[in-house]
Amino acid sequence: MAYVLERKTADRKPQPVHYRTRRQLWCLLFIAPQLVLFLLFTLYPIIMSYVYAFFNWSGFGPLRDYVGFANFKETLLDPIFWNAFRNSLTFMLYVVLIQVPLALLMALLLNAGWLRGKAFYRMIYFLPVVTTTAVVGLVMRFIFGAYKGLVNEVLMRIGLLSAPVDWLGSVDTAFLVVVLVGIWKSFGMKLIYWLAGIQSLPKDVFEAAKIDGAGPLQMLRYVTIPLLLPVGSVILLMSSVNALHVFDLVKAMTDGGPAFKTDMVDVYIYRYAFSGKGEARVGFASAAGVLYGIVVMLISLALGLLVKLAGGRKAGKTQGEGTT
Protein backbone atom coordinates (compact mmCIF):
# COMPACT_ATOMS: atom_id res chain seq x y z
CA MET A 1 0.00 0.00 0.00
CA ALA A 2 2.81 2.40 0.90
CA TYR A 3 4.57 1.53 -2.38
CA VAL A 4 1.44 2.39 -4.39
CA LEU A 5 1.05 5.75 -2.62
CA GLU A 6 4.72 6.60 -3.22
CA ARG A 7 4.38 5.59 -6.88
CA LYS A 8 1.32 7.80 -7.34
CA THR A 9 3.06 10.71 -5.65
CA ALA A 10 6.13 10.29 -7.83
CA ASP A 11 4.04 10.05 -11.02
CA ARG A 12 2.10 13.20 -10.16
CA LYS A 13 3.19 16.05 -12.39
CA PRO A 14 4.18 19.37 -10.80
CA GLN A 15 1.64 22.12 -11.22
CA PRO A 16 2.46 24.81 -13.77
CA VAL A 17 3.89 28.07 -12.44
CA HIS A 18 0.97 30.16 -13.69
CA TYR A 19 -1.47 27.85 -11.91
CA ARG A 20 0.31 28.22 -8.56
CA THR A 21 0.58 31.97 -9.06
CA ARG A 22 -3.13 32.22 -9.80
CA ARG A 23 -3.98 30.29 -6.61
CA GLN A 24 -1.74 32.57 -4.55
CA LEU A 25 -3.39 35.64 -6.07
CA TRP A 26 -6.82 34.28 -5.17
CA CYS A 27 -5.66 33.69 -1.60
CA LEU A 28 -4.33 37.25 -1.40
CA LEU A 29 -7.60 38.56 -2.81
CA PHE A 30 -9.62 36.88 -0.07
CA ILE A 31 -7.40 38.11 2.77
CA ALA A 32 -7.02 41.61 1.29
CA PRO A 33 -10.07 43.15 3.08
CA GLN A 34 -8.89 41.94 6.48
CA LEU A 35 -5.34 43.04 5.72
CA VAL A 36 -6.47 46.52 4.66
CA LEU A 37 -8.59 46.93 7.79
CA PHE A 38 -5.69 45.79 9.97
CA LEU A 39 -3.29 48.24 8.33
CA LEU A 40 -5.72 51.19 8.51
CA PHE A 41 -7.29 50.72 11.93
CA THR A 42 -4.64 48.82 13.93
CA LEU A 43 -1.09 49.11 12.63
CA TYR A 44 -1.31 52.71 11.36
CA PRO A 45 -2.80 54.14 14.62
CA ILE A 46 -0.16 52.30 16.67
CA ILE A 47 2.68 53.74 14.60
CA MET A 48 1.22 57.24 14.52
CA SER A 49 0.63 57.28 18.28
CA TYR A 50 4.40 57.12 18.72
CA VAL A 51 4.73 60.06 16.32
CA TYR A 52 2.00 62.16 17.94
CA ALA A 53 3.58 61.64 21.36
CA PHE A 54 6.41 64.02 20.39
CA PHE A 55 4.10 66.86 19.33
CA ASN A 56 1.75 69.25 21.07
CA TRP A 57 -1.14 68.40 18.77
CA SER A 58 -4.88 68.78 19.24
CA GLY A 59 -5.87 66.25 16.58
CA PHE A 60 -6.52 68.85 13.87
CA GLY A 61 -4.13 70.49 11.46
CA PRO A 62 -0.53 69.68 10.62
CA LEU A 63 2.10 68.47 13.10
CA ARG A 64 4.15 71.62 13.74
CA ASP A 65 4.69 72.06 17.47
CA TYR A 66 7.43 69.54 18.20
CA VAL A 67 7.99 69.21 21.95
CA GLY A 68 10.29 66.20 22.15
CA PHE A 69 9.91 64.24 25.38
CA ALA A 70 7.91 66.99 27.13
CA ASN A 71 4.65 65.00 26.90
CA PHE A 72 6.31 61.96 28.45
CA LYS A 73 7.79 64.06 31.24
CA GLU A 74 4.45 65.71 31.98
CA THR A 75 2.74 62.33 32.06
CA LEU A 76 5.28 60.88 34.48
CA LEU A 77 4.90 63.90 36.77
CA ASP A 78 1.10 63.83 36.74
CA PRO A 79 -0.30 62.29 39.97
CA ILE A 80 -3.64 61.62 38.26
CA PHE A 81 -1.86 59.39 35.74
CA TRP A 82 -0.21 57.41 38.52
CA ASN A 83 -3.56 57.13 40.28
CA ALA A 84 -5.11 55.70 37.11
CA PHE A 85 -2.08 53.44 36.66
CA ARG A 86 -2.41 52.13 40.21
CA ASN A 87 -6.14 51.55 39.74
CA SER A 88 -5.53 49.60 36.52
CA LEU A 89 -2.97 47.32 38.16
CA THR A 90 -5.17 46.86 41.24
CA PHE A 91 -8.14 45.98 39.06
CA MET A 92 -6.01 43.46 37.17
CA LEU A 93 -4.77 41.83 40.38
CA TYR A 94 -8.27 41.56 41.86
CA VAL A 95 -9.71 40.08 38.68
CA VAL A 96 -6.90 37.55 38.19
CA LEU A 97 -6.65 36.45 41.82
CA ILE A 98 -10.41 36.01 42.21
CA GLN A 99 -11.66 35.08 38.76
CA VAL A 100 -9.04 32.54 37.60
CA PRO A 101 -9.21 30.14 40.60
CA LEU A 102 -12.97 30.58 40.91
CA ALA A 103 -13.41 29.71 37.24
CA LEU A 104 -11.23 26.62 37.77
CA LEU A 105 -13.43 25.41 40.63
CA MET A 106 -16.56 26.00 38.59
CA ALA A 107 -15.04 24.18 35.60
CA LEU A 108 -14.23 21.18 37.79
CA LEU A 109 -17.82 21.19 39.02
CA LEU A 110 -19.28 21.43 35.51
CA ASN A 111 -17.00 18.62 34.38
CA ALA A 112 -18.27 16.27 37.09
CA GLY A 113 -20.08 13.23 35.77
CA TRP A 114 -22.96 13.43 38.26
CA LEU A 115 -24.01 16.98 37.32
CA ARG A 116 -27.07 17.33 35.09
CA GLY A 117 -27.89 20.26 32.83
CA LYS A 118 -24.27 21.15 32.06
CA ALA A 119 -25.13 22.86 28.78
CA PHE A 120 -27.62 25.15 30.54
CA TYR A 121 -25.10 26.21 33.19
CA ARG A 122 -22.42 26.88 30.58
CA MET A 123 -24.86 29.05 28.64
CA ILE A 124 -25.78 31.02 31.76
CA TYR A 125 -22.15 31.70 32.65
CA PHE A 126 -21.13 32.51 29.07
CA LEU A 127 -24.06 34.82 28.32
CA PRO A 128 -22.41 37.95 29.84
CA VAL A 129 -19.34 37.40 27.63
CA VAL A 130 -21.31 37.86 24.41
CA THR A 131 -23.20 40.87 25.79
CA THR A 132 -21.84 44.26 24.78
CA THR A 133 -19.71 45.66 27.60
CA ALA A 134 -21.05 49.20 27.22
CA VAL A 135 -24.62 47.89 27.53
CA VAL A 136 -23.63 45.92 30.64
CA GLY A 137 -22.14 49.08 32.15
CA LEU A 138 -25.29 51.11 31.50
CA VAL A 139 -27.51 48.38 32.95
CA MET A 140 -25.31 48.14 36.02
CA ARG A 141 -25.68 51.87 36.60
CA PHE A 142 -29.41 51.31 37.07
CA ILE A 143 -28.98 48.13 39.11
CA PHE A 144 -26.56 49.82 41.53
CA GLY A 145 -28.37 53.15 41.39
CA ALA A 146 -28.74 55.14 44.61
CA TYR A 147 -32.51 55.44 44.27
CA LYS A 148 -34.83 52.75 42.96
CA GLY A 149 -31.81 50.58 42.18
CA LEU A 150 -32.36 46.83 42.24
CA VAL A 151 -29.56 46.17 44.74
CA ASN A 152 -30.80 48.78 47.19
CA GLU A 153 -34.40 47.64 46.84
CA VAL A 154 -33.51 44.00 47.56
CA LEU A 155 -31.19 44.78 50.48
CA MET A 156 -33.71 47.14 52.05
CA ARG A 157 -36.55 44.63 51.71
CA ILE A 158 -34.59 41.90 53.50
CA GLY A 159 -33.47 44.34 56.19
CA LEU A 160 -29.74 44.57 55.43
CA LEU A 161 -30.00 48.30 54.61
CA SER A 162 -32.01 50.99 56.31
CA ALA A 163 -31.34 53.63 53.65
CA PRO A 164 -30.25 53.56 49.99
CA VAL A 165 -26.52 53.46 49.26
CA ASP A 166 -24.95 55.27 46.33
CA TRP A 167 -22.79 52.33 45.29
CA LEU A 168 -21.22 53.99 42.25
CA GLY A 169 -21.09 57.48 43.76
CA SER A 170 -19.21 56.63 46.95
CA VAL A 171 -15.41 56.44 47.09
CA ASP A 172 -15.74 53.50 49.49
CA THR A 173 -17.78 51.23 47.23
CA ALA A 174 -17.39 52.35 43.59
CA PHE A 175 -14.13 50.54 42.86
CA LEU A 176 -15.35 47.33 44.51
CA VAL A 177 -18.53 47.36 42.42
CA VAL A 178 -16.54 47.85 39.20
CA VAL A 179 -14.28 44.93 40.14
CA LEU A 180 -17.24 42.64 40.86
CA VAL A 181 -18.94 43.53 37.58
CA GLY A 182 -15.66 43.05 35.69
CA ILE A 183 -15.21 39.60 37.21
CA TRP A 184 -18.79 38.62 36.37
CA LYS A 185 -18.58 39.98 32.81
CA SER A 186 -15.59 37.88 31.67
CA PHE A 187 -16.05 34.91 34.01
CA GLY A 188 -17.60 32.70 31.33
CA MET A 189 -14.60 32.98 29.01
CA LYS A 190 -12.17 31.77 31.68
CA LEU A 191 -14.61 29.00 32.53
CA ILE A 192 -14.57 27.77 28.92
CA TYR A 193 -10.77 27.89 28.84
CA TRP A 194 -10.52 25.79 31.99
CA LEU A 195 -13.13 23.32 30.71
CA ALA A 196 -11.21 22.89 27.46
CA GLY A 197 -8.02 22.26 29.42
CA ILE A 198 -9.65 19.75 31.77
CA GLN A 199 -11.33 17.81 28.98
CA SER A 200 -8.05 17.56 27.05
CA LEU A 201 -6.25 15.78 29.91
CA PRO A 202 -5.37 12.10 29.28
CA LYS A 203 -7.93 9.76 30.82
CA ASP A 204 -5.44 6.94 31.40
CA VAL A 205 -3.57 9.01 33.99
CA PHE A 206 -6.70 9.36 36.10
CA GLU A 207 -7.52 5.68 35.69
CA ALA A 208 -4.02 4.74 36.84
CA ALA A 209 -4.31 7.06 39.85
CA LYS A 210 -7.69 5.55 40.73
CA ILE A 211 -6.22 2.04 40.52
CA ASP A 212 -3.42 3.13 42.86
CA GLY A 213 -6.05 4.14 45.40
CA ALA A 214 -6.03 7.93 44.97
CA GLY A 215 -9.14 9.72 46.18
CA PRO A 216 -10.82 12.74 44.55
CA LEU A 217 -8.80 15.30 46.52
CA GLN A 218 -5.54 13.46 45.91
CA MET A 219 -6.21 13.27 42.16
CA LEU A 220 -7.04 16.97 42.14
CA ARG A 221 -3.84 17.90 43.97
CA TYR A 222 -1.34 15.50 42.43
CA VAL A 223 -2.79 14.86 38.96
CA THR A 224 -5.28 17.47 37.74
CA ILE A 225 -3.61 20.67 38.91
CA PRO A 226 -0.03 19.69 37.83
CA LEU A 227 -1.31 18.70 34.38
CA LEU A 228 -3.26 21.96 34.10
CA LEU A 229 -0.29 24.21 34.91
CA PRO A 230 0.62 24.94 31.25
CA VAL A 231 -3.02 25.71 30.42
CA GLY A 232 -3.34 27.75 33.60
CA SER A 233 -0.32 29.86 32.74
CA VAL A 234 -1.85 30.71 29.36
CA ILE A 235 -5.16 31.61 31.03
CA LEU A 236 -3.24 33.76 33.51
CA LEU A 237 -1.52 35.58 30.64
CA MET A 238 -4.72 36.30 28.75
CA SER A 239 -6.65 37.27 31.89
CA SER A 240 -3.97 39.72 33.01
CA VAL A 241 -3.66 41.44 29.64
CA ASN A 242 -7.42 41.67 29.14
CA ALA A 243 -7.98 43.01 32.67
CA LEU A 244 -5.59 45.90 31.97
CA HIS A 245 -8.04 47.29 29.39
CA VAL A 246 -11.46 48.02 30.89
CA PHE A 247 -12.27 51.31 29.18
CA ASP A 248 -15.79 50.53 28.00
CA LEU A 249 -16.98 49.10 31.32
CA VAL A 250 -15.58 51.92 33.47
CA LYS A 251 -16.62 54.61 31.00
CA ALA A 252 -20.22 53.40 31.02
CA MET A 253 -20.46 52.79 34.78
CA THR A 254 -18.54 55.59 36.51
CA ASP A 255 -16.51 57.54 33.91
CA GLY A 256 -13.57 57.27 36.30
CA GLY A 257 -15.37 58.80 39.29
CA PRO A 258 -16.04 59.54 42.01
CA ALA A 259 -12.95 61.66 42.67
CA PHE A 260 -10.94 59.52 40.19
CA LYS A 261 -11.46 56.50 42.46
CA THR A 262 -12.23 54.23 39.48
CA ASP A 263 -10.11 56.09 36.95
CA MET A 264 -8.16 53.74 34.66
CA VAL A 265 -5.37 54.55 32.24
CA ASP A 266 -7.65 53.90 29.25
CA VAL A 267 -10.19 56.41 30.59
CA TYR A 268 -7.37 58.84 31.40
CA ILE A 269 -6.14 58.70 27.79
CA TYR A 270 -9.64 59.13 26.40
CA ARG A 271 -10.31 62.12 28.63
CA TYR A 272 -7.38 64.08 27.19
CA ALA A 273 -7.80 62.94 23.58
CA PHE A 274 -11.57 62.86 22.91
CA SER A 275 -13.53 64.15 25.90
CA GLY A 276 -14.00 67.63 24.46
CA LYS A 277 -13.42 69.34 27.81
CA GLY A 278 -11.27 72.22 26.67
CA GLU A 279 -8.71 71.78 23.89
CA ALA A 280 -7.99 68.16 23.03
CA ARG A 281 -4.42 67.01 23.68
CA VAL A 282 -3.91 64.06 21.38
CA GLY A 283 -0.13 64.33 21.66
CA PHE A 284 -0.20 64.15 25.44
CA ALA A 285 -2.72 61.29 25.38
CA SER A 286 -0.53 59.43 22.89
CA ALA A 287 2.46 59.76 25.22
CA ALA A 288 0.42 58.31 28.09
CA GLY A 289 -0.74 55.51 25.80
CA VAL A 290 2.83 54.72 24.73
CA LEU A 291 4.02 54.53 28.33
CA TYR A 292 1.13 52.32 29.33
CA GLY A 293 1.62 50.16 26.26
CA ILE A 294 5.25 49.57 27.25
CA VAL A 295 4.16 48.49 30.73
CA VAL A 296 1.54 46.11 29.30
CA MET A 297 4.15 44.70 26.92
CA LEU A 298 6.59 44.09 29.79
CA ILE A 299 3.87 42.35 31.81
CA SER A 300 2.97 40.24 28.77
CA LEU A 301 6.62 39.28 28.22
CA ALA A 302 7.03 38.30 31.88
CA LEU A 303 3.87 36.19 31.83
CA GLY A 304 4.85 34.75 28.44
CA LEU A 305 8.13 33.62 29.98
CA LEU A 306 6.09 31.95 32.71
CA VAL A 307 4.04 30.15 30.05
CA LYS A 308 7.23 28.98 28.33
CA LEU A 309 8.72 27.73 31.58
CA ALA A 310 5.52 25.86 32.44
CA GLY A 311 5.46 24.24 29.00
CA GLY A 312 9.14 23.28 29.24
CA ARG A 313 8.63 21.80 32.69
CA LYS A 314 5.74 19.68 31.44
CA ALA A 315 7.79 18.51 28.44
CA GLY A 316 10.70 17.62 30.72
CA LYS A 317 8.48 15.58 33.01
CA THR A 318 6.90 13.80 30.07
CA GLN A 319 10.31 12.95 28.62
CA GLY A 320 11.54 11.71 31.99
CA GLU A 321 8.50 9.49 32.42
CA GLY A 322 8.98 8.11 28.91
CA THR A 323 12.63 7.30 29.61
CA THR A 324 11.69 5.57 32.83
Describe this structure as you would to a colleague.
This protein is an all-alpha fold. It has one domain: Orthogonal Bundle (MetI-like fold), CATH 1.10.3720.10. 74% of the residues lie in helices and 0% in strands. The protein contains 13 helices and no strands. Helix 12 runs antiparallel to helix 13. The longest helix has 42 residues. The N terminus and C terminus are likely disordered.
Give me a quick take on this structure:
The protein has one domain: Orthogonal Bundle (MetI-like fold). The protein has 13 helices and no strands. It has helices at 2-11, 17-52, 70-76, 79-110, 118-130, 133-143, 150-157, 174-199, 203-211, 216-243, 247-253, 265-274, 282-323.
Which short descriptors sum up this protein?
single chain, 324 residues, mainly alpha, MetI-like fold, 13 helices, 0% strand, disordered N terminus, transmembrane, MetI-like
User: Which second-level CATH architecture applies?
Assistant: Orthogonal Bundle
Secondary structure tally: strands: 0
Oligomeric state of the chains present here: single chain
Distance between the first and last residues' Cα: 35 Å
Summing up helix and strand content along with how strands pair, one would put the structural category as mainly alpha
CATH-assigned fold name? MetI-like fold
pLDDT < 50 runs, ≥5 residues? 1-10, 318-324
Q: What is the number of domains? A: 1
Helical residue percent?
over 70%
Q: How many helices? A: 13
% residues in beta strands: under 5%
- Compute the CA-based radius of gyration: 26 Å
Order of helices and strands: HHHHHHHHHHHHH
